[in-house]
Design goal:
By secondary structure, this protein is an alpha/beta fold. A 6-stranded parallel beta sheet has the order 3-2-1-4-5-6, with helices on both faces. It folds into 2 domains: 2-13 and 93-222, HAD superfamily/HAD-like (Rossmann fold, 3-Layer(aba) Sandwich), CATH 3.40.50.1000; 15-89, DNA polymerase, domain 1, CATH 1.10.150. Helix content is 48%, strand content 13%. The radius of gyration is 19 Å and the shape is elongated. The longest helix has 19 residues, at 14-32. The structure holds magnesium ion (MG). Magnesium ion binds at residues 6, 8-10, 169-171.
Amino acid sequence: MLIIFDLDDTLIDTSHTITRPLWRKALEEMIQGGLQVEDFSKALFHLWALDQNTQSSSETLRLFLSFYQANISLQEIGLKALQKIDVLQTKIQPLPGVLEGLKILQAAYTLAVVSKGVESLQREKLKKAGIDTAFFSKIVISEEGNKKVYYKKLFEELKEPPQNCTVVGDRVLYDLKPAKELQMRSRHMKWGRGKVYSPWSEYVDQEIYSFKELISYFEKLSNLAVLDGN
Ligand SMILES: [Mg+2]
């Protein structure tokens, strides 16, 4: 059985360890660009809070700037600042339970990662989070395209029927919808933006709130398979 993980906010705690410091940078640069806020800390908390409830950084910035009645052209400055990630200077953490959990899972399952992003950056994040890449049979990182193509390639290559494959990810439309369209199973990691209410429940087989919950689910499943003699 194959389990495919998304990376950001599924294995790596991107929203707390990477995105939050970047929002600070974005706010600083928008202020340099002419944004006026009375209280920096309050504005920063406002940005963080908004970002928990939107579908994208652009939407967060649009709502934030309209609240402050600021020029929407500052959105571009904010978005650029969010891309200035200095991986070497950032302390990157995995989600709680990931390091121990992957060790348990790899004993019974084939594991893989399909992530959208810049390959060198995503690999550096894995390294800095202390996640051993040897746990995964395949790591696919791509800047472009629908994940569906990569999921299909993976289960064909690893000779697994799609019904025996599970995708775990925090973003329903990017991570889970393509999985369901391929008859794979899907687990929605409710982390980062994944915490937001999602109206696309038809693409989610199960919602999970921690990595530990995921492990106990798969442990039960593999024990059942042993009992069944499979
Ligand atoms: Mg993600």
